[in-house]
Amino acid sequence: MNVISVDHLVIGAGFAGLCAAIKLDQAGERDFVVIEKGSDVGGTWRDNTYPGAACDVPSQLYSYSFAPNPDWSMSFSPQPEILAYIKRVADESGTLDRFVFDTLVEDATWDDAAQRWTVRTAGNGGGEGTTYSARTVISGAGGLSAPKLPEISGIDSFAGELFHSAEWDHDVDLSGKRVAVIGTGASSIQIVPAIQEKVAHLDVYQRTAPYVIPRNDRRYSRLEKLALQKVPGLQSLYRTGIYWAREGYVPAFTMAPRLALPAQKMALANIRKGIKDPALRAAVTPDYQIGCKRILISNTYYPALAADNCDVVTDPIAEITPTGIVTADGTARDVDVLIIATGFHTTELPIAEKVTGRSGRPLAEKWNESGMSAYKGTAVADFPNLFFIVGPNTGLGHSSMVFMIESQVSYIVDALRTMRAEGHGSVEVTAAAEQAWSADLQRRMKRTVWSSGGCASWYLDKHGNNTTLWPRSTFAFRGETASFDPEVYTVSAVSTTQNPHAGPTQREAVSS
Ligand code: N01
């Protein structure tokens, strides 16, 4: 067996994995490999290429603090611009020589005697992969990366074109077709207005109406871009202003949902502005508290729903047939192209099925029983030297995930620095620390609108616990992750057992 030995194996080359690579490199931890299932960097911004894809967090904030970009064209950038930004940062980072693309993790198993992870990979597409022996594994696999197909009877029998929003088939021409979109979440409300004028007919299948407030987007002028580029400190000041304005939303989500009533009014006014028909207005009016699900932003969604060639279908879907969709009232609607915008596996991360810890138990088994949890969203008891970025309870509804990613990466790099300085072979968070962390989060969750707002959402797991979102301010998270805290970890000395997989290092393998 050809085994490559590395200090650190990073999984995923999206915002998280790239940030880890850059910060490891800067910290002198240069013996690492980033494995990525796709053929380029970018993660979710590489995969989600659907028409209308854009970020709903301002780009000045939704970007790395260490790689400011004065050239964003709009306040909310479209997907191609964000992907180009990630590629540029990757190119300029000097770390791409350690990225291995088109590679899937088959499994990752902790070898306690050797104090190392054995990670088997496969080529994406079935080819043979490499086995890595790594001191630490850093997962940047993301929480919104595994498309979730709805369990609707007959879906496999559909004879037309069918694809998920995150796997858009650009070879399918929608012009003049009868198109159906299932789902009305963040992806759908961007897709619907982008395709409505092109298609012959559009059916939008809505199970729960979302709240959609106006999108205050605008194009930056050349003068503004020049000022951001040339005036020292201006871009950083601008970013800080956006950060604090966004942070001001936190109490409405986490403590006092009534504070969001003005936003609720704005959303209802957005419906009245975009739709004249009282019946359609009623159909798209949510019946729960704003903020319970992600608050969406669009100026074009409601006008698209109100167009003559569009129907909003609220009757539950009974089945999918080879030619279309039948709803519970017995109505059959013909469909040429079926777009599945039903979201992602968020509370059962697929990576957990592949990781087996110190006691020989898969992570998915542990999380299945008690729900996803990780100390500081990062470390899990029984899984030494495994660090998550964008792990459990690190998601946000109001601000930039890049801020959370940078916080976690800084914590992980500090852990590695401590391990090296103290000669630790492994660090494993104690079960008590992990449980206390989770109990505190779940206690805080009770007061949030996500729990009390009267809706079901992808934030909640099968036990009704919110294991996805962070229920405090982002600066509180920054504080929690400011430095590694070895006192809640069990540490082991560097193994005296010979690394059983001692083979060429990644650099030797690349250069041979
Ligand atoms: O997915 P979602 P998404 N039958 O889970 C419906 C990020 N994102 O891809 O509400 C019928 O939000 C489901 O209905 P219900 C962002 O974090 C960001 O849109 O469960 N319908 C819902 O309407 C976002 O939150 C951007 O009743 C079914 C929809 O499908 C996350 O990704 C842009 C169904 C799923 O909505 C996910 O967004 C896009 C069924 N069986 C995405 N199952 C930015 O701008 C599900 N639904 C940054």
Share of residues in helices: 25-40%
The biggest beta sheet reads: 8 strands, mixed
CATH superfamily of the largest domain: FAD/NAD(P)-binding domain
Give the radius of gyration.
24 Å
Secondary structure blueprint with pairings:
Layout: E1 3-11, H1 15-26, E2 32-35, H2 44-47, H3 79-93, E3 99-100, E4 103-111, E5 116-123, E6 128-139, E7 161-164, E8 178-182, H4 186-195, E9 201-205, E10 212-213, H5 222-230, H6 234-247, H7 250-254, H8 261-274, H9 278-283, E11 296-297, H10 301-306, E12 310-313, E13 317-320, E14 324-327, E15 332-334, E16 337-340, E17 355-356, H11 363-370, E18 386-388, H12 401-422, E19 424-429, H13 431-445, H14 449-452, H15 474-480, E20 489-493, H16 506-511
Parallel strand pairs: 1-2, 1-6, 2-3, 4-17, 6-18, 7-16, 8-9, 8-16, 9-12, 10-11
Antiparallel strand pairs: 4-5, 5-6, 13-14, 14-15, 19-20
Helix pairs in contact: 1-12
The protein binds 3-acetylpyridine adenine dinucleotide.
